[in-house]
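Researcher: Re-running this chain for the archive, since the previous output was lost when a drive failed. Same request as before.
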Amino acid sequence: MSAPSAPSAVDLPVLAEVVRSGFVEGHHRGSLVILDADGGVDFALGAPELPVFPRSSNKPMQATAVLRTGLELEGEFLALAAASHSAETFHLEAVRKILASAGLDESALQTPPSLSLDEDEAEAWIRAGGQPERILMDCSGKHAAMLAACVRNGWDTATYLDENHPVQAEARAVLEELSGEPVAAVGTDGCGAPLMAVSLVALARAFRAHVLADPGTPQRRVADAMRAHPEYVAGTRRIDTWLMRAVPGAMAKMGAESVQAVALADGRALAFKIDDGAKRALGPVLAAALRRMGVSTPDDTLDRIAAAPLLGGGAPVGAVRAAF
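Model: Regenerated structure tokens:
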């Protein structure tokens, strides 16, 4: 039996609208859930109970899994294991150190050759004569940690991306345990790793489980590392970094196809997916959801996250804005 699929876009509510010169020219539909401090559903739009591929929002659970295999990672190296990094110099140096700690180098990575997610970093790399490389791929920190876990346990490194490999089996077990939901489907992520589907409600529960776990447990160690080193989770010019710096105790992780999950220190959590995968809608929807939860910052961070201007003739003439 095939896994249930999400409802069609026309059935989902509008989470963001595209407004140009005062005229609404388009919409971004999707699903969203906010959990209260007790873990119950406080607010929902769309179909957050149906499975989605969380993409890189699954990375905190994958990082927890490598710790449970016995791998010892701390600080920025553990944050990088849960990262979609921007391939800034400090990211690349840390990936190489994780690999070197296991007696490996970049040739062990099975990430596809890529450029940085960050346009400025990618442009600088190309201007310096660089080409796409495996280590530049935003998931190389996760892959390095998985490889190191393989070496630690004597597992085959050549097949570490196979769905039934021990490191991937542990990742699935962690996701199902912390989300409270069985995996609905397994696919292949953009980095080549197995990608496991759960609902947005389950995704929010898994994030909540990280921040509320007892100190010293694998999941709490991941949450603490991400919150202490947010620039390693994303990059110096990325939304997850801005949010974790501005909101004490918040753990945030985006995923491709416009998925986002956040847990706050008190156990409240959110998760959403823009159905068409439009990256431009992620910031406005995230900021609106956080404001609905009563989150504020002493600076302009939420405004910065929400900013998604539309240009006309090179000047701002509108914006993508949340519609709830």
